[in-house]
Amino acid sequence: MKAISIVAPAGENIATGKKTLEIRKWAPNFDCNEDLLIVENQHYLLKEGDEEMGKAVAIVKVKNVRPFFESDIEAACASYYEAG
């Protein structure tokens, strides 16, 4: 199973269903219907070698991998939209 690290409180928001969409600037290598472990960290892991002991908060099923649209702001619990 693949895992993705997400900064708090976004991991818990995914686990509780409040956040239903995760936005990344990079294209993830996930398949539709693939199980994905959500690991919540307290800090961003920004560069190679950054490590932090995160907490597994949920296992979710990947529904789709697609571009981010302005209409996704609420589902992503985002504060702004940036194309790309």
Low-pLDDT segments: none
Tell me the fraction of residues in β-strands, as a range.
Answer: 15-25%
Helix/strand structural class: mainly beta
Largest sheet: 3 strands, mixed
Order of helices and strands: EHEE
Q: What spatial order of strands do you see in the largest sheet?
A: 1-2-3
What does the overall shape look like? Answer: globular
* Share in helix: under 10%
Give the integer mean of the pLDDT values: 92
Query: What integer value in Å does the Rg equal?
Result: 13 Å
Oligomer: single chain
Q: What's the N-to-C terminus distance?
A: 27 Å
Counted beta strands? 3
Helix count equals 1
Characterization of the model:
The chain has 84 residues and is mostly beta strands. Helices cover 7% and strands 24% of the residues. It has one helix at 10-15; strands at residues 2-7, 35-41, 55-61. The longest helix is centred in the first third of the chain and has 6 residues, at 10-15. The chain starts with a strand and ends in a 23-residue tail after the last strand. 11% of the residues are buried.
